[in-house]
Design a protein that fits this description.
Largest sheet of chain B: 2 strands, antiparallel
Number of domains of chain A: 2
Radius of gyration of chain B: 20 Å
Protein name (chain B): Fructose transport system permease protein
Number of helices of chain B: 15
Membrane topology (chain B): Multi-pass membrane protein
Number of strands of chain A: 13
Structural class of chain A: alpha/beta
Strand content of chain B: under 5%
Number of helices of chain A: 11
GO molecular function, one term (chain B): transmembrane transporter activity
InterPro entries (chain B): ABC_transp_permease
Radius of gyration of chain A: 23 Å
Keywords (chain B): Cell membrane, Membrane, Transmembrane, Transmembrane helix
Strand content of chain A: 15-25%
Oligomer: heterodimer
Helix content of chain B: over 70%
């Protein structure tokens, strides 16, 4: 029974260690109940996960703004993208601590009821990055207009083609689940290009060939990439197997674009192919500079978070609530087309400028 | 190349000859050659998809099938070793990503010479596997629990270490990108990464079928108590299996860099289940002691063939999931049926 005693001893040690960790973690939190002009205001930032550079940038923006506005910021996140339960717990903690507001990038509809509980308890809740479904679950959303982001790269592509036939590969995020960022960018791109998308909330229901306004188009594939390089590469290879004449490649984000470019390179087909993407992280901007990506739409996570912290601080001290941008169900934090090959009639910034605005 | 379990003895062959019904004969055939059923399935898959779309089996597409399968196939080598001992490894992807990020970061950010950075990444894989091995053999924890824990630990370390950022191939030295280089035989392209993976199969296949170590791995998986009584140092064999698996994951991480064109903390998200699926469809028993690497290789190819084939046919991804699920159930059922031959 040698093992049992040893295991028992280990268990005791493990429990003791866990307890110690819990104590340390609890040390720094104390709630606020009054919101005087000089009082600290408690705010939680709850991201999808804590490793994605996009969310790391958000945390940075929120921390800087919190210091300026005398805000006591708590940073929390789900364990991974999709972890709704972890976010629910973070929301419950914010309520228990008597905080004034929550900034959240919801992992899914599973957090909606916890958000409602927070609002019922008097907290002001702002969604960042993507509006929840339905959008009025939160007080307001600060987000990138992903449809607009897609539309910009679509318009740029149309100008670059100048009436030439477009043979298109669409490299999406998933094809086994429906996510708003996925269809908004994809359908925005096709709309910007001039293709009739039918249902703007559904990828792949448009006619496989037709006219994009000034020329004819063929859609070769809608392939999933999971937003990573290896997925982007396999997806592009499969598309090239279907049709080796692809000259337009839409990608959900820049890692997927890098993977797609490597597949094109391996097939010896990089020349004359337009690769476009969305995100505008520093690595992505460099990919545009290096010619791997033709154009990308840049979003501003830092701004989303700092505006969010500022708004809650203002409201808690009796200020006005922010309003949605015209014609949208969220507050638009802006998007800019990044390219070194500016197209006439499409507003863009170059990689030098984008490099000073990028995140990650 | 013989990469299945040790050939059955003469007495067993004699027994097989005396069986009468065709069912029993098939049962014996499948028992003797665990890779036979996945081979038949792969053949059927290729034939069916070619009938749907002739592009499926042109040399360029087949070389893609091989390249796309390579990394998962490499990981499945380690997974096969562990499943042969009746264990399971849930930390496959985590160890691979950790190795990848460490070798890329040391070379790109810390200015280490390419060879040293590569070696550090591979050795780290070995150490991570050895840690699993120690926890399984010395503390006596079930492999499922151990690797469930180290899955989280290694993933966390990889994410913290890399800051969640990919490192692109233009920042990496030639040696780390080398696995992505290739040469063409006609329209069939072979990359160095694929050759390395084939090398892994040959070396480990030889070790499993031709060495005492290999026989001990099967023995420990079949019946650890009987193995111990017949003089096999079970714990030592088990530890070596986890360490070797970790080493393989490190090498697979190198192949992954060339494949993806970057070292990415978000790559091979489905590696754990994909590697287990390849092993199971390949006819290796989850109960240990039966199966082999040739089956695993075929299993990995089958799964990827479904992905490409259905994509070419324009079918939704959900049908691939469905088909692979059915294959897994069929594979385990066949395994159970074959096991009856022994009783």
């Amino acid at each position: 029974m040698h093992f049992i005693t040893r295991t028992a001893r280990l268990s005791v040690a493990a429990v003791a260690l866990t307890g110690l960790l819990a104590l340390t973690a609890c040390g720094g939190s104390d709630g606020n109940s009054v919101a005087g002009a000089n009082d600290k205001i408690g705010v939680s930032l709850i991201t999808k996960d804590s490793s994605n550079p996009f969310f790391v940038a958000m945390q940075k923006g929120a921390k800087e703004e919190a210091a300026k506005n005398n805000v006591d910021l708590t940073v929390a996140s789900g364990k991974a993208d999709g972890d709704e339960q972890g976010q629910v717990q973070a929301i419950e903690n914010a309520i228990a601590q008597g905080q004034k507001g929550i900034l959240i990038t919801p992992n899914g509809p599973g957090v909606n009821s916890a958000i409602k509980k927070a609002r019922d308890a008097g907290l002001y809740v702002i969604a960042l990055d993507t509006p929840p479904d339905p959008a009025d679950t939160v007080d307001i959303t600060f987000a990138t207009d992903n449809f607009e982001a897609g539309k910009l790269i679509g318009q740029w592509t149309a100008k670059q083609l100048g009436g030439k036939p477009a043979t298109i590969a669409l490299l999406d995020l998933f094809n086994d689940k429906v996510v708003s960022v996925d269809y908004n960018r994809d359908q925005g791109f096709l709309t910007g290009l001039g293709v009739d998308t039918k249902d703007a909330k559904k990828n792949g229901d448009e006619a496989k060939s037709g006219s994009y306004g000034s020329g004819s188009y063929t859609i070769v594939c809608n392939e999933p990439t999971k937003g990573a390089e290896d997925g982007g590469r396999s997806a592009m290879e499969n598309c090239l197997t279907k049709n080796s004449n692809i000259n337009v490649v839409y990608t959900i984000n820049e890692p997927a674009a890098v993977g797609a470019y490597n597949a094109l390179k391996a097939a010896g087909k990089t020349s004359g192919v337009l690769v476009v993407s969305v995100d505008g992280g520093c690595a992505g901007v460099k990919s545009v500079k290096d010619g791997v990506i033709g154009a990308t739409s840049q979003q501003y996570p830092l701004k989303m978070a700092s505006l969010g912290v500022e708004s809650i601080a203002k409201i808690a001290r009796g200020g006005d609530k922010p309003k949605n941008s015209d014609g949208l169900d969220f507050f638009n934090t802006g998007v800019a087309l990044v390219t070194d090959k500016a197209a006439p009639g499409v507003t863009s910034i170059d990689t030098a400028k984008a490099g000073t605005l990028c995140w990650g | 190349m013989t990469v299945q379990s040790a050939a059955p003895g003469a007495a067993e062959k004699e027994l097989a000859r005396r069986e009468h019904t065709p069912g029993q004969r098939i049962q014996h055939l499948l028992h003797q050659h665990p890779a036979l059923s996945p081979a038949i399935i792969l053949l059927l898959t290729v034939v069916c998809f070619t009938a749907v779309n002739s592009r499926f089996s042109n040399p360029a597409a087949l070389s893609l099938l091989v390249q796309q399968t390579a990394v998962i196939a490499a990981l499945a080598v380690g997974q096969t070793l562990i499943i042969l001992t009746a264990g399971i490894d849930l930390s496959v992807g985590a160890i691979t990503i950790l190795s990848t990020m460490v070798m890329a970061t040391l070379a790109a950010e810390n200015g280490w010479p390419a060879g040293l950075a590569l070696a550090a990444g591979v050795v780290l894989g070995l150490l991570a596997g050895a840690l699993n091995g120690i926890l399984v053999t010395r503390i006596g924890l079930p492999p499922f629990i151990v690797t469930l824990g180290t899955l989280s630990i290694f993933t966390a370390i990889a994410l913290l270490y890399s800051g969640g950022q990919s490192i692109q191939n233009n920042r990496l030295p030639a040696l780390l990108n080398w696995t992505g280089d290739g040469f063409a035989i006609g329209r069939f392209t072979i990359t160095t990464g694929v050759l390395i993976v084939i090398g892994l199969y040959l070396v480990l296949g030889f070790a499993l079928s031709q060495t005492a170590w290999g026989r001990h791995v099967y023995a420990v998986g079949d019946d650890p108590e009987a193995a111990r009584l017949s003089g096999v140092r079970s714990r030592r064999v088990l530890f070596s299996v986890y360490a070797v698996a970790g080493l393989i994951y490190g090498i697979a991480g190198w192949a992954l860099i060339g494949r993806a064109g970057a070292a990415s903390p978000n790559a091979i998200v489905d590696a754990n289940l994909d590697s287990i699926t390849a092993v199971v469809i390949g006819g290796t028993s989850l109960f240990g002691g039966r199966g082999g690497l040739l089956g695993t290789l075929l299993g990995a190819l089958i799964v990827q063939a479904f992905t490409i084939g259905l994509s070419l046919a324009g079918v939704d991804a959900q049908y691939r999931l469905f088909a692979v699920g059915v294959l897994v159930i069929v594979a385990v059922s066949v395994d159970q049926w074959i096991r009856k031959v022994r009783s």
